[in-house]
Design goal:
- The protein has about 500 residues and is mainly beta.
- About 5% of the residues lie in helices and about 50% in strands.
- It has one helix and 40 strands.
- Strands 9, 11, 12, 14, 15 and 16 form a six-stranded mixed sheet that branches. Strands 3-2-5-6 form a four-stranded antiparallel sheet, with no helix packed on it. Strands 19-18-17-40 form a four-stranded antiparallel sheet, with no helix packed on it.
- The relative contact order is 0.06.
Length: about 500
Amino acid sequence: MKITSKYISLFFMLTVLISCSEDKVSLSGAGVITGKVVSKGENEPLENTKISTSPSTSIVFTNASGDFVINTASVGTYSIEAQKDGYLSKFESITVVEDNEVNVIFELDVETANNDAPNTPILNSPVNDAINQYLSLDLVWEGFDPEEDDLVYEVQILNDHNSDVLIYTDVIDTTLTVSGLDYNTKYFWQVSASDNINALVLSETFNFTTIGFPANRVFFTRKINENNVIFSVDSEGNEYQLTSLSSNSWRPRKATGLDKLAFLRSNGGQTHIYTMDLDGSNITQVTNNIAVNGSNLEELDFEWKSNNTAFVYSNFDKLYQINTDGSGVVQLHQTLNGNFITEVDWNQSTQSMVVKTNNAVGYNVEIYTINATGVIQDYVLQNVNGAAGGLDYSFDGLKLLYTYDVSGNQNTEYRQLNTHMFIYTIATAMSQDLSTSKQAGTNDLDVRFAPNEADVIFVNTSNDGISQNNIYKMSLDLEETRTLLVNDGKMPDWK
């Protein structure tokens, strides 16, 4: 029985050994397997690629040149696998012949080679050809990736006014808030999607047009750092900057019935008249050879003339007319006493002008009217001490606004102590004080008629000469109810 048990055990052991070696090649006969592994497309050698076979032989790794060798591979057919992190595994079939070398080349794709590109982004909002869009808005789109890879977007925005391109990169959301757009401008926008694997996928291009510039009627100047900057303001108090912070621009004057604004600007040490559209575009210089000049540049004023086809302005003691295109410069008037002409206003109805003159320090003031040929007609103010200014005709030319420092004080700093607004009736040569309830210690300056002439707008500020200026509106019904229009503003105009 013991002998029988031994034979049975031996039989089972042989059976197991035969079973376990079914996938092994025969030990009889051998050959050599050589090969090389490179990256697909670039053909760069791939070092440390694992090479294995089925049926099993030795497991080897490629060298720095991408080469490998399996010595003494038994004769037979093999499936050889090349494996490397970051690349797709690949199989090749070979047959080993006794005493021969068989060579195989692997070209491995990167792991992402089979990755699908993102779907084309779908633009949602604003819809294509949208109009009246605000200057700050949300661009909204949809994006999807088949493998649910994380997507990164780039948004490009062009416009039909210039060659500027707005580019927003590394956007991970499908909503982008864009602000600071220009009025009345057509914009074109496109979204590209990237999964950081495939090439960028571009959306179609949509366009939208922004709202037109508001038809504001009030204009003013504000000092920002060292420069004056011109603004407009709407009925709700929203302000719109019209000139650059890098230029010194002041004294805005709107043309009646024409969408043009004229103003003064420093240019190379001189002061010239410029015009622009009401949104601040199309800035054009008018004066050239004869600049605007006088005793105090910030006190200087000019006016549209002859149905807005020309300007009248001063250069020291002379008054000039110039066409709006810069041609036709003629001298209209020269002061009799050598005073400088600081302000001028023109009335279309009466074809007359009013000027304010003063000496080199701002005093010895005279306000008088002249006809179209420059002949003096009537004096409104003369032989007084103190500063004056703020000339503005009524529409019919029968009344005139001006300001005058009733304190009569004259000083080297040209500081005004108690300046009031007056309305002068030309027919009666009488002036009416509009500032009887003005707060003590303040000045009312730069008075202008409102378009309905039932109100006036003006600047009120402390008489210390350094405090902030504010622009107010007041009714002419003598209730003197003052309404703040602009905080921190001066040189108003309302057309």
